[in-house]
């Protein structure tokens, strides 16, 4: 009898996790607002995602973010300190109120790939960033 209850409970939990509006289901979009941590800020707006790290940052189109099992990748631009905006790719995975992300940047000046991250930010948390000169 206990085995049967366990199997039924597992089926109910699995079905709930697959339901579109279930709190157990992976999110289908990034929550609007600030996601922050020490050294990283991730701000999601209606049309733009702004990512900042100590003296560097980028912009990525929010409309191009499509979560698949809580994961996403989107192309945008990145600016290293006072340099020009260069092509970049933002990748992340969301679990609850936590977002882990990294940015790959093609530095056109040195013709090499730069990596920023990984970072872990929490939705509704204000970022603590270094003020650049």
Would you give an account of this structure?
The chain has 133 residues and is mostly beta strands. Mean pLDDT is 81; it is low at 2-16. β7 (98-107) and β8 form a beta hairpin. 13% of the residues lie in helices and 49% in strands.
**Structural class label:** mainly beta
Q: How much of the polypeptide forms β-strand, as a percent range?
A: over 45%
* Counted beta strands: 8
Order of helices and strands: HEEEEEEEE
What is the typical, i.e. mean, pLDDT?
81
Q: End-to-end span in angstroms?
A: 68 Å
Question: How are the strands of the biggest sheet laid out side by side?
Answer: 1-2-3-4-5-6-7-8
Based on Cα principal axes, name the global outline: globular
In terms of quaternary structure, the protein is single chain
Biggest sheet statistics: 8 strands, antiparallel, barrel
SSE topology sketch:
Layout: H1 2-18, E1 33-37, E2 40-44, E3 48-53, E4 56-61, E5 71-80, E6 85-95, E7 98-107, E8 112-123
Antiparallel strand pairs: 1-2, 1-8, 2-3, 3-4, 4-5, 5-6, 6-7, 7-8
């Amino acid at each position: 009898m206990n085995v049967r209850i366990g199997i039924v409970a597992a089926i109910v939990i699995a079905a709930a996790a697959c339901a579109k509006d279930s709190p157990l289901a992976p999110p289908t979009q990034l929550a609007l607002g600030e996601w922050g941590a020490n050294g990283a800020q991730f701000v999601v707006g209606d049309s733009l995602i702004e990512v900042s790290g100590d003296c560097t940052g980028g912009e990525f189109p929010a409309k191009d973010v499509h979560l698949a099992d809580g994961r996403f990748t989107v192309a945008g631009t990145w600016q290293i300190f006072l340099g020009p905006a260069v092509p970049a790719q933002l990748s992340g995975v969301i679990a609850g109120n936590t977002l882990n992300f990294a940015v790959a940047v093609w530095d056109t000046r040195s013709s090499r790939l730069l990596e920023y991250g990984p970072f872990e930010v929490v939705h509704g948390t204000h970022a603590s960033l270094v003020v650049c000169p």
